[in-house]
Design brief:
Immunoglobulin-like; Maltoporin, Chain A; six-stranded mixed beta sheet
Length: 929
């Protein structure tokens, strides 16, 4: 006992040195085993010795049941455990294969009977599919299933398995924006500090499971209104294990694009390239010191030229646009992890990873608005000089009533951008140089130049501390939890336009490179480009109480306080806000056995006030904003005005608050046997204090004043409502499955982080083109505010998702068949046209209500077939074939790649990328042990 106490002091001392600043643990990666020991009459048995044994790591913990026969083991590494109960005069009961899952409680109730002689009873343990201590809308996407499916090799793809999630790599979850999610790697926040989107990629083979929480989330989590995504990585065990994979693709294997371009009659078929692409992936894990110290590592590398993509096709110049282009990625993804169970009660983890991916070709002008390769941007991502994320984590249990967790981490992500391809000749007319971006009003497309040339760097330091107290009060069991988190953020940006000019012209012919200029065509010349460095601080505090009332009721009552502070690049504090988020969940355990649960929850969720507000709106060194506006007078460019934004012209709104949503949800969950569960959930979400900006032209100075502010919900509106049905089947009897259906609606009039066109230049006139393309001048509110209320661009009425795998074990080979099916309603769109610019700003005019049209519904069926045989001992050798879009359905699925200008071409696809990708194939050779 004295040595254990001495170790605790040493451990805390080491932690104090290693973690100079603590922060709140945003949830836990560890799980809990709790239960009661009962006699044959159902009464609690005190004084029973309860031993907990990790099946794959070997460590043990021991407790004695309290006066009610209860016991609890907290902060356990995920995996299978054995619970053994013993007391003189009673049978010894051993329950095996009790599965511990992150942030869940596994109930293990044991009945012991009197026995005159020593007797041992063995039974199969529990799997926590339904958990009254955590009834949030959480989807756990396990590698046990995903390694069998035909599915994209990224955690971003796995997020799509969750109900109520739409979109791509940065999804919309339950009506929230794609910038409202939070991305955690083993609890480390990797969300991009400026954009609010994902900030890191990750080695797919290192993923143990991805936990996606989208509704009813407890007070441990904050500053997210969409999905909270926690990527949980694999760890070593007492057995050596590893894998080697060679993943092969070739565009020549794949089907071609169907149909033809309705604008010009050209076929959508692409130029295939006959080249085998190889991805190599290795993993290895095992013990360094059995029962105490383990390691795990994963490395994946490959060069990957993509299938040919296509720029938008101009309805005016179809032969000079719709160009094929190809990106060639160079990818290196690695992860390393050391886990140290210093004593049965103290766990340390050290981890690092990196994810440099270079060679992206991006349509940063907007998908569907880039007409030729010269307008594309090339991007290198997270080339962060070796290590992108590093962390140290500790958890400790002190007796049966107190436990704690702590984390310190550093993350950095660097992005470099440059022109994808320079034009071969300068445009003819207007003195436009090679590389200068050109926007043509004749077809609303961009030509000749990239969107960006520069870089961003967004380092973050963070630390977490959380403590738990388990206590019996008034005959009820309580878990009190409190935590604090801290983040130190920076955002470094340097962006220019190539040549520092952007042109808005009447017409540009990409074949002849001829520019047609008319009076009032515009040249924006950007001035004084320089590096901008803003900073931010985040503090979070939370407290909650999870407690039972009698046999049937369980509550989780908590609140969190979040403080956000942001300074501009000239050191001016522009964000300074503190907000409190109440969270309340009530659960009724219908039969008192933890298997049939009815729950109701209310929660308030605040937006992460993204650093971009400090970077752009309040920047003293703004990026791509300060410019001189020149108008063409028929013979030359004449200075019309100077646009200056930033600290000198933007008054700080010291009352700016993050937007928040109030969410109400009710749910019913039923566990079926030991490995299946079904559920139904109703969700209603209502946003408040949405942020927007009003732009005002100040004639006396010639400047545009831009100030973000909050608006009441009778002015800016955003709503989401849904009903979800789920079914989950953990692996047993050779098959596993995850299925869900969502009926939902997302609507409103503002779907931006903090800026839209609403309210801009309210007392002025704006130029726009009418349905016939004729230039019209009207009051700006008629241009910027009209027809804005309606369906969100990401709204899906129906979504059905089903993922399943069945393994047929034969005498010499195990064959696994794994179909995956997704069916969705099409996305909405409406007639619209980009307008001429005012004071350097371009507007979009809506000719009809937002979301007046909808793409057709679409489905995709993927299929994987894997065969594995064991030539010797634990060694497995196999091959896996995958077919994506098995039925080769190619409907239009992208509402950003459509012709939205009113007229005979409205609703036409603008490139082959508008359609669902054709049937394609992937082959994997694998070795596992």
């Amino acid at each position: 006992m004295r040595s254990r106490f001495r170790f605790t002091l040493i451990a805390l001392g080491i932690l104090a040195l290693a973690v100079p600043t603590f922060l709140l643990a945003d949830g836990t990666l560890l799980g809990t085993v709790s239960g009661r020991v009962l006699d044959e009459q159902g009464g609690g048995v005190p004084g029973v010795t309860v031993e907990l044994i990790s099946a794959d790591k070997g460590f043990r913990r021991t407790q004695t049941t309290d006066a009610t026969g209860s016991f609890k083991f907290a902060l356990l590494q995920p995996g299978p455990y054995t619970v053994r109960t013993s007391l003189s005069g009673f049978t010894t009961v051993e329950k095996t294969r009790n599965i511990v899952a992150p942030d869940k409680t596994t109930d293990v109730n044991v009945t012991m009977r009197l026995a005159p002689t020593e007797e041992k009873v063995e039974v199969t343990g529990e799997v926590p599919l339904v958990d009254k201590t955590n009834t949030s809308a959480t989807t756990t996407v396990s590698s046990v299933l995903t390694q069998k499916l035909a599915i994209g090799r990224s955690y971003q793809t796995l997020i799509q398995n969750a109900p109520g999630v739409t979109g791509g790599a940065n999804p919309n979850a339950h009506g929230a924006l794609s910038s409202n999610n939070q991305y955690l790697f083993d609890g480390v926040d990797t969300t991009d500090v400026t954009t609010g989107t994902f900030g890191q990629n990750f080695n797919y083979e290192a993923i143990d499971e991805v936990v996606v929480s989208t509704s009813g989330v407890s007070a441990e989590y904050g500053r997210a209104q969409g999905a909270i995504v926690n990527v949980i990585t694999k760890s070593g065990t007492n057995s050596f294990s590893g894998s080697a994979k060679l993943i092969m693709t070739n565009d020549k294997w794949n089907d071609d694009n169907k149909g033809k371009n309705p604008a010009n009659g050209r076929l959508w078929n692409r130029t295939k390239f006959d080249k085998d692409i190889y991805q190599k992936a290795l993993t290895l894990g095992g013990p360094v010191w059995k029962d105490h110290l383990w390691f795990f590592g994963a490395y994946e590398w490959y060069d990957q030229p993509s299938a040919f993509q296509q720029t938008a096709t101009s309805p005016v110049y179809p032969n000079g646009t719709g160009q094929n282009y190809q990106q060639s990625l160079k990818v290196k993804l690695w992860d390393g992890k050391i886990t140290f169970q210093a004593t049965p009660s103290h766990l340390f983890t050290v981890q690092a990873n990196a994810d440099p991916i270079n060679g992206f070709a991006v349509q940063y002008w907007g998908t569907g608005f880039v007409a030729e390769k010269e307008a594309l941007t090339e991007q290198d991502q997270n080339d962060c000089g070796g290590i992108c994320v590093k962390q140290i984590r500790w958890s400790g249990v002190f007796g049966s009533n107190f436990s704690a967790e702590a984390l310190y981490a550093e993350q950095k992500g660097d992005i470099f951008v440059r022109p994808y391809q320079l034009a071969s000749m300068a445009p003819d007319g207007g003195g436009i140089a090679i590389g200068s971006p050109i926007f043509s009003f004749n077809d609303n497309l961009y030509y000749n130049g990239a969107t960006f040339d520069g870089f961003v760097k967004r380092p973050r330091k963070q630390a977490n501390l959380a403590v738990n107290l388990y206590q019996q009060l008034f005959g009820n069991s309580h878990q009190f939890k409190a935590g604090v988190d801290y983040q130190d953020l920076k955002s470094v940006a340097f962006f220019t336009y190539p040549t520092n000019n952007v042109y808005y012209v009447t017409d540009f012919n990409p074949v002849t490179r001829h520019v047609t200029l008319s009076p009032n065509d515009e040249r924006d010349t950007f001035v004084d480009p320089a590096q901008s460095i803003s900073s931010g601080k985040i503090y979070g505090f939370y407290a909650l109480d999870k407690f039972e009332v009698g046999k049937h009721l369980f509550f989780n009552i908590g609140a969190r306080l979040d403080y956000q502070k942001g300074d501009s690049d000239i050191g001016q504090t522009v964000i300074d806000t503190t907000r409190i988020s109440p969270r309340l969940t009530g659960v009724y355990d219908v039969f008192g056995n933890g298997k049939t649960l009815a729950s109701a929850a209310y929660g308030r969720y605040y937006q992460f006030l993204i650093q971009d507000i400090a970077d752009s709106v309040y920047s003293g060194i703004p990026q791509q904003q300060n410019h001189d506006v020149y108008l063409w007078d028929g013979t030359q460019w004449v200075l019309d005005q100077q646009v200056r934004v930033g600290a000198g012209t933007t008054p700080v709104n010291h009352n700016l608050k993050p937007s928040y949503l109030d969410e109400f949800n009710v749910a019913f969950q039923q566990q079926l046997g030991n490995t299946m569960a079904v559920g139904v959930r109703g969700i209603y979400r209502h946003w408040n204090d949405l942020i927007d900006d009003r732009k005002v032209f100040e004639a006396s100075t010639g400047n545009v004043i831009t100030e973000p502010m909050n608006f009441s919900d009778d002015i800016l509106k955003r709503y989401y409502k849904a009903v979800e049905v789920t079914f989950d089947k953990r692996f047993s009897r050779n098959w596993q499955a995850s299925m869900n259906y969502t009926l939902s609606r997302a609507e409103g009039n503002q779907f931006n982080d903090y800026t839209s066109q609403l309210f801009d230049f309210a007392n002025e006139n704006c130029r726009h083109r009418d349905v016939n393309g004729t230039q019209v001048t009207e009051p700006c509110p008629l241009v910027t505010d009209l027809n804005r209320y309606g369906l969100a661009t990401y709204d899906r009425t129906h979504q059905l998702k089903a993922f399943t795998a069945y393994t047929l074990p034969l005498s010499w080979v195990a064959i696994t068949a794994a179909p995956a099916f997704i069916w969705r309603s099409g996305l909405p769109y409406q007639e619209q046209r980009s307008t001429s610019s005012l004071h350097g700003y371009t507007f979009t005019y809506f000719f009809e209500k937002r979301g007046s049209h909808r793409l057709p519904s679409a489905y995709q069926l993927d299929f994987a077939l894997e065969g594995v045989f064991k030539p010797w001992g634990p060694l497995e050798v196999g091959v896996k074939g995958e077919v994506f879009n098995l039925t080769n359905q190619q409907p239009i699925v992208d509402n950003t790649r459509l012709t939205l200008i009113p007229g005979s071409s409205f609703g036409f696809p603008t490139s082959r990328n508008s359609f669902q990708a054709p049937r394609n194939y992937r082959l994997t050779a694998l070795v596992r042990f």
